[in-house]
């Protein structure tokens, strides 16, 4: 039965006058502890796509790409949602920290279940991304400025420099939690001096799945964008392009693996593999981009 239909049925039954008496009892401490322990090692996944993703294909992806120390249990919740049962919190935390992940070019939104683990109340829109900020002034290449710019994109998490936690070089790299239900930001306007021109900072996303280049929202391809009319000849100019996606600093891309025909290797955790895509991406020139007045 559809999860929403099941929830509605339970609600209707609870309102009936002749409903059977419900016996409520407190869970024993050992039962509650066991349930909380199992929940602590779980994740709920939602695939942001219009494609059909089966439990079998997603389970194969989990075992072959994530390569956890123990097999991860995958149970379907319907509507492209799955519950993942990890053997340890170590594997669970590693998967969360090494995101974002994608399957068949579609983003995987992961949520940590809270309370009773009611997945119907989860939004699946807060996703942590590795972001590169280009054209940042040299004197602004600091962790403090990284936090300020990150807060303009979403919820700032950290500067991606393991040794010094500071920013060096031409690009400022940060990790930010972004609302995936809204259009991605392509650039930031930075005003450092009221008497000088605005500095435009280009935003590029690492290890990024395909997104709609028309509206900038994840979860559907360009040809299925509701903002575009399929038969309309004068389509509006695309606001996004390949320039918004870039491989990470090691030239590797995550979650882009071919389906394996054999069992997963036990040689140890390995969540990223080389990819030939987007490894030569270049920063676009201002003439190749369009900057709206507001976003």
**Overall mean confidence score, pLDDT:** 75
Secondary-structure class: alpha+beta
Counting DSSP H or I runs of 4 or more residues, the number of helices is 5
**Cα-based radius of gyration, to the nearest Å:** 22 Å
Q: What separation lies between the terminal Cα atoms?
A: 41 Å
Low-pLDDT windows of residues: 249-283, 291-295
| DSSP strand count | 13
Largest beta-sheet characterization: 6 strands, mixed
Describe the global form: globular
Estimated helix fraction: 10-25%
Along the chain, the helix and strand elements come as HHEHEEHEEEHEEEEEEE
Salient structural properties:
6-stranded mixed sheet, 295 residues, 5-stranded antiparallel sheet, 5 helices
Description:
This protein has 295 residues and is of the alpha+beta class. 19% of the residues lie in helices and 23% in strands. The protein contains five helices and 13 strands. The chain has helices spanning 3-15, 29-40, 55-66, 89-97, 143-153, and strands at residues 42-48, 73-78, 81-85, 101-103, 106-111, 126-134, 155-159, 172-179, 187-190, 199-206, 245-246, 252-254, 272-274. Strands 6, 7, 8, 9, 10 and 11 form a six-stranded mixed sheet that branches. A hairpin with a 2-residue loop joins strand 2 and strand 3. Mean pLDDT is 75; it is low at 249-283 and 291-295.
């Amino acid at each position: 039965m559809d999860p929403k239909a099941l929830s509605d049925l339970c609600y209707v039954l609870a309102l009936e006058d002749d409903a059977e008496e419900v016996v409520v009892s407190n869970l024993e401490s050992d039962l509650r502890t066991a349930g909380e322990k199992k929940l602590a090692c779980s994740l709920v996944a939602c695939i942001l796509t219009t494609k059909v993703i089966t439990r079998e294909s997603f389970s194969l992806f989990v075992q072959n790409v994530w390569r956890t120390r123990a097999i991860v249990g995958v149970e379907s919740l319907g509507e492209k949602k799955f519950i993942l049962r990890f053997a340890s919190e170590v594997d669970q935390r590693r998967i969360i920290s090494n995101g974002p992940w994608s399957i068949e070019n579609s983003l995987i939104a992961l949520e940590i279940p809270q309370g009773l683990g009611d997945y119907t109340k989860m939004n699946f829109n807060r996703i942590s991304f590795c972001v590169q900020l280009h054209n940042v002034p040299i004197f602004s290449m600091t962790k403090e400025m990284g936090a300020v710019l990150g807060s303009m994109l979403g919820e700032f998490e950290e500067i991606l420099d393991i040794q010094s936690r500071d920013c060096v070089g031409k690009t400022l790299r940060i990790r930010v939690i972004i609302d995936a239900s809204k259009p991605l930001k392509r650039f930031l306007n930075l005003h450092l001096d009221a008497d000088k021109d605005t500095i435009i900072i280009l935003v590029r996303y690492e290890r990024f799945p395909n997104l709609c280049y028309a509206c900038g929202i994840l979860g559907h391809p360009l040809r299925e964008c509701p903002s575009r009319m399929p038969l309309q000849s004068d389509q509006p100019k695309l606001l996004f392009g390949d320039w918004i996606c870039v491989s990470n600093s090691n030239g590797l891309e995550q979650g882009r693996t071919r389906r394996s025909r054999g069992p997963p290797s036990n040689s140890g955790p390995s969540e990223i593999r080389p990819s030939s895509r987007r490894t030569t991406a270049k920063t676009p020139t201002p003439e190749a981009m369009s900057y709206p007045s507001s976003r």
